[in-house]
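User: Can you help me understand a structure? I only have the sequence.
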Amino acid sequence: MDTLPKLSPAQNLLLRTAGRRADGRVRPPDTLRGGGRAKVLTALLQRGWIEPAGDDLVLTDAGYAAIGQ
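Assistant: Let's start by predicting it. Here is the structure, written out as tokens:
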């Protein structure tokens, strides 16, 4: 049985919220600002869980797998 990766609360929020959107778009909440926002998004990009798509960031297949979808 595969285990899901350990996600920080912010990573979990971003991935699960994007997973509920039809387009898989990642939209950080206004409460996630500055260095914290950059750190979370950079970590998700480095792991391949999100990717750039035009001016947006979207969930990848690996990102869906990370949240069990």
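Now, to help you interpret it: The first helix runs from residue 9 to 20. The two ends are 15 Å apart (CA to CA). Let me know which part you'd like to focus on.
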